[in-house]
Amino acid sequence: MDLAEEEDPAMPLSDDGAARQNDDVATSALWGVLVLAIAVFFVDRGFDRLFSDYRFDENITGWVSSDGLWDTIVRSWNNQGQSPLYFVIVWVWQQLAGTSEFAVRIPSLVALGAAMWHLIGIGQDVGRKSLGIVAAIFLVSTDVGAADARPYIFLVLSVVLALRYGLRWSSPSGSLTDGVRWAVFGVLALYFHPLAIYALMPHLLLSIRARNLGRSRQTTALIVLGGLLALPLIPQMLALGSRGDSLVLVPLPGFDSLRGGVLPGALGMAILLAALANVDWRWLRSVPNPRFAIFAFGTVSPALGLFVQSWITGNAVFVDRYWTAAIPLAGLVLGHLLSNMRNYAMIIGCLVPVIAGVPTFGVETDLPDWAYAAAVIEQASPDSEIWAMAGLIESYHPGYFETTDANDYLSGHFILHGAEREILSVPAGVSDEFNPIYDRHVERVSSTGAPVTIVQVSDGAFVPSIQYAIDQLVANGYEVADLDFESDILTARLERP
């Protein structure tokens, strides 16, 4: 579908046909830049990241999907902030491709490729191929979790699909089929993460555009359809809200953090170069364009929504992975500005900081050796109790230790890598709420005299809560028989003489 001629005549995409002719020249060069950006992505992340051991949160994906399909659904429902959809996809894929770290990351790579394809498709739909290619370059050059076995790149893909079909549906030639796709993919984004709600706020503008075209009933019907499709999410979202204070341990954001969220450094630099390269400021004529307004709104709404929610609720959810859905919209903003430039060499020059920004995200290569930790657990004496802490944020919330329901989840990193013995997950906090938990464990084990093996992910020292437990055990006649630190895993064996 070509939407190029359906732009509001009062706010044209460009002032004459020269920009469209230049777009053809720029497009040819931009394909080469896109290939370069993809190559940089794989060189920078491919070998070190795609084939590496699981990073911290990826271990959760591995554990959730490590057994049967029903186990996968129950574990994700009870322990994750997303619906089971992503984890079911991973489980099904594992039945076909195996359970290696690289295999489990392949769906994320496919989602990245699909998102790039549809961004380019958006450019084609509006008659500006360069717009979509620039957005694809920006997406692959930004760390959106495309090399991780986590759901965030699927959230990005869903938002891109919803945007593409929403733009089609809200155009004069839009069809009901496009509208249904818009509603389905918008709800799908919520299934990949409920905080996608802020990324969908610009779609209000699409519904307004459709109503202005005389489609009020159709708009209402599609919104109702979306609401019905989202109903299964309500129980989990209510449960998630009830434990929201246990899920994120970041400080409340300031305005500097908000600025960084709504204007990523690479985007800001590219826009600055674009402005300076156009001394006649022709690019400013893009700003009143209605599609540009949608792209710009989608760039700022995820971070802004998370910022406001954090301050209203007091539970800080201002975490960069939660606003990854803004990245493709930011790329479309940049593409929209650059597509009106006359010098394609300058267009490419403005993308240099975007591509150069890829390595700045870094690759986490110094990872805890979870297999070693699992081996320590398995090699402990048969009569030894195993107390372990993987370091999940839930470890700082006492509610997770009132029962043993979350014990396997909190120990999932060890279980995934081969620990089969019974593990007692212990909390990370030290306070009047946490100390009684340790006191009960110390009293119980002291009554039997059983040895205790403690395993903790660490930078070389026990967290205060573990140290408190060791002190209490020593006060009850135990001695530290062995202490070892290797591969970011700190272990201690305590026993009575």
Question: What does this molecule look like?
Answer:
There is one protein chain. The protein has 497 residues and is mainly α. It has two domains: 358 residues, no CATH class; 126 residues, Cobalt-precorrin-4 Transmethylase, domain 1 (3-Layer(aba) Sandwich), CATH 3.40.1010. It contains 21 helices and five strands. The protein has a five-stranded mixed β-sheet, with helices on both faces. Helix 1 packs parallel to helix 16, helix 5 runs parallel beside helix 7 and helix 13 packs antiparallel against helix 16.
**Mean pLDDT figure:** 81
* Beta strand %: 5-15%
Gyration radius, rounded: 26 Å
| Number of separate structural domains | 2
DSSP summary: helix tally: 21
Biggest sheet, spatial arrangement of strands:
2-1-3-5-4
Q: Major sheet, described briefly? A: 5 strands, mixed
- Give a count of the beta strands, DSSP E runs of length 2 or more: 5
Helix and strand pattern: HHHHHHHHHHHHHHHHHEHHEHEHEE
**Overall outline:** elongated
How far is it from the N-terminal to the C-terminal residue, by CA? 79 Å
Q: Provide the helix percentage.
A: 55-70%
Derived from helix and strand composition plus strand pairing, the structural class reads: mainly alpha
